Amino acid sequence: MKARVNSTSKRFILLGSSRGLGWATYQALSRVYPESAYLLSSRKIQEKAADFRANTECSHYDFSQGELTEDFLRTLENFHGTHLIYFAGGGPYGFFSQKKWSAHQWCLETTFLFPARLLHEVLGQHQRWASLEQIIFIGSAVAENQADPQAASYAAAKHALKGLITTVQQENLIANNRQAPEILLFSPGYMQTDLLPLHSEPRQKGLAEKPEVVAEKLIAMIQKID
Predict the structure, then answer these.
(1) Model pTM?
(2) N or C: which end of the chain has fewer CB within 10 A?
């Protein structure tokens, strides 16, 4: 495991951070670590620029586009982040056969394939990511472990993400890979975001937490590990 930096030297890369849990985590982190630097990236991040705090940069990127471009990798590399958190994800709500395939494809690309590409890049290019101590991927306590009716592609993607992360964690232990950043999976339950319709069962039964509450739990995990 790499040596930890102090709180004033932390540099957070938040991918998929323009709304929901990503945005809530940025706001909470910037209160807990006001002297840290932040790089926010999403397809719509520039719409949030007026609300950025000090020491914040932004990078427009569409994680569903099916590739990991060299320009984007260079942006991440030049920031010299210590912590990277991948929030992007989601999928269509409704019966699998009644949703367009393009919606399922967006879900699989954003929720699983892009983070898988990113992890493959980081683990394969140690020298390029020397400053990176920790990568956190956002799973789902519900969708990654069981069937999730009316969220089939989302459940498939989260199952795959959990399988990938837990397997790579074991591979790093077997290989005694001290150069690799710590790889973690944070798996909250249902959240009150735009991707969970108002008429959905979790909302109707009060099972969904506010993103701000979940963000505090994520930060508590980071602080515990540090």
Answers:
(1) 0.91
(2) N
Give the DSSP H or E segment for 160: helix 152-175
Contacting residues for 28 by C-beta, under 8 A, at least 6 apart: 212, 215, 216, 219
Helix (H) or strand (E) holding 103: helix 101-108
CA–CA separation, 59 vs 195, rounded Å? 23
| Residue 210 CA from chain centroid, whole number | 17
- Answer for the pair 22, 16: CB distance below 8 angstroms, yes or no: yes
Q: What is the pLDDT of residues 141-196, one digit of tens each?
A: 989 999 989 999 999 999 999 999 999 999 999 988 888 899 999 999 866 666 65
Domain membership flag for residue 216: yes
Domain count across the chain: 1
| Per-residue three-class SS string for 135-155 | EEEECCCCCCCCCCCCCHHHH
